[in-house]
Amino acid sequence: MKSKFIIRIGFICVGVVAVAFLVLKLTVWKDSPGAYLKDSKNDTKICYGAQVGNLQRKDRNIENRHKAYPGNYRKDYESVPVEAIRVKRSNIEIFLVNNCTLEPEKQVDVVAETSGSVLNILVEEGDYVQSGMPLAKLDDDEALLALREAKLKKENAERVYKSSLDNFNENIISKEEFEEKRFQLEIATVELERKQLEYEYTTIESPLDGVIVERSIEEGYYIEKDQMVFKIADFDPILARIYIPEKDINKVVEGQMARVISEFMPDIEFKGKVKMVSPVVDPESGTVKVTIEMEDLSGGALRPGMFASVFTIVDQHQDALLIPKKALILEAEADEVFVVRNFVVLSVNPDVVKGLALGDSAECKQKRDGSLLRGNIVDISISHENESIYNVTIEAIETPGGDISKELEKVSFYNNHDDLVSEIKNISFHIETRAFKTKITLGFKEGNYIEVLTGLGEGDRVITVGQDDVGHGADVAVINEEKEDGTTAVLGPP
After folding, report:
1. 254 and 155: one domain?
2. What is the pLDDT of the chain when averaged over all its residues?
3. For 358-389, b where at least 16 C-beta lie within 10 A, e where not — what string?
């Protein structure tokens, strides 16, 4: 009895395992990678054309791969919308950045040379004045009376001196008396000059050319001698005093160019140059004071007291290839960008491709306007839709214009020796735009732009927006080709 019971249990276990295996076969293992690969082997066929193979699935909903360049595979899916910009040439600089408050080269406090009541104020803050120009007038009645009294005293001293001179010549008075009268004349003369100055001091004058930046008196005020009444600053030149680290001191020399930007006018650059470099290092901060001078500024746009950023140019590359920083692929292991390239795809008979090879040049004449498209053959492969048709892919040198999917009047193919290999007329074509990941070598970095040393050429188009959704060799649609930034205004002498 016990052995029969064990046999029944065994049959039950075998049945459970069989049912479980059948369920897994119909569910989980149906879509397993191994099964997919096994089925795909039966759906794959290899076609040969100009040494280029294509892997093609019968079901178009499953991944389809073909060559854009020999050895480079891409996925065939809907075009990805992207934005692109052309690589341009321009100057790029590296610089030291500092912030500071702008200062005038000259600024003086005008003080009263005499005391008195303010009768008239002749200038206001913001007025430009020249050296010697009257700024204010004090009450001069008392000074005028003192001046007249001093003149009378001098006239009397002169009369006494002349009389004593005659008496001295006639030996009527002694030499000591004569010298005393002459001394009294000199004292009267000095006193007159002093009173003349006191009278002139009642008119307050500018000591230099500049702008009135502060007025501290009002009409009717009584001011004391040596009291500050005006403040005048010379706005040309304006100075920017910056402090650079000791390690960068060898990068800055007198005469070096600098750019100054005020935070209130970020779109305007002011040109300056290094006027002086301090010969000593501040032991507390470890910095060196550098004075930047800006001359011939237009319209007084920069003023003392403004907060500004100073970019001291320490090196420059002329005519460098530049791209925006946002064109870089962020998650790439190396410095890479996506380059957009245009391809003209011709559908031709097998007889046409005889004698053609990758790298041959092509000259395509458009029907509508007769313009020429030039490029080189980069792919020759059998069409997916019709195996009796070959697709000849030509990389266009310039961006093709006009409508997609139209006819060309004539296409001429040339080999490396510029010999005509083949020529066809009235051939249909379409244009493909693809993106290719390209390694580049970077140079200087300035603001939003970076210099490209290798990997790109002038006029190449690089993707700036949408590269996260793009794969190598993918079809893309450039929906907006960015224009070059406008020229920044620069104020200052050339």
Report:
1. no
2. 78
3. eebbbbbebeeeeeebebebbbbbbbbeeeee
Q: How far apart are the first and last CA of the chain?
A: 114
Q: What is the mean pLDDT of residues 451-471?
A: 88
Residue 55 scores a pLDDT above 50: no
What number of other Cβ atoms are within 10 A of residue 146's Cβ?
18
Would you say residue 395 has pLDDT above 70? yes
Q: Is the residue at 174 inside a domain? A: yes
User: pLDDT (tens digit, 9 = 90+) per residue, 330-381?
Assistant: 877 889 999 988 888 888 888 888 888 888 888 888 777 777 888 888 888 8
Asked whether the predicted pLDDT for residue 412 surpasses 50, the reply is yes
For 16-43, give one letter per residue: b (16+ CB within 10 A) or e. Answer: eeeeeeeeeeeeeeeeeeeeeeeeeeee
**CA–centroid distance for 300 within its chain:** 24
Do residues 171 and 145 share a domain? yes
CATH of the domain at 282: 2.40.30.170
CA 149 vs. chain centroid, Å, equals 71
pLDDT at position 119 over 70? yes
pLDDT at 168: 78
Q: How confident is the model at residue 121 (pLDDT cuts 50, 70, 90)?
A: very high
How far, in Å, are 212, 228, 433 from residue 231 at the CA level?
6, 8, 67
pLDDT at 22: 67
Residues 161 and 192 in one domain: yes
Whether the CB-CB separation of 347 and 383 falls below 8 Å is answered with yes
Token couple for 330: 């962020």
- Full DSSP string of 176-208: HHHHHHHHHHHHHHHHHHHHHHHHHTTEEE-SS
| pLDDT at residue 169 in the model | 82
The radius of gyration of the chain from alpha carbons, rounded to an integer in Å, stands at 46
Q: Which residues contact 150 (CB under 8 A, 6 or more apart)?
A: 188, 191, 192, 194, 195, 196
Looking at the DSSP bridge assignments, the partners of residue 372 are 365
Please tell me whether residue 273 adopts helix, strand or coil conformation.
Answer: strand
Q: Can you read off the two tokens belonging to residue 61? A: 């909903």
Structurally, the chain folds into a number of domains equal to 3
Taking the C-alpha atoms of residue 143 and residue 422, their distance in angstroms, rounded to an integer, is 109
For the stretch 312-325, pLDDT in tens is 888 878 888 999 99
Q: Which comes out higher in pLDDT, residue 16 or 45?
A: 16
Q: 301, 261 in Cβ contact below 8 A?
A: no
CATH code (residue 219): 2.40.50.100
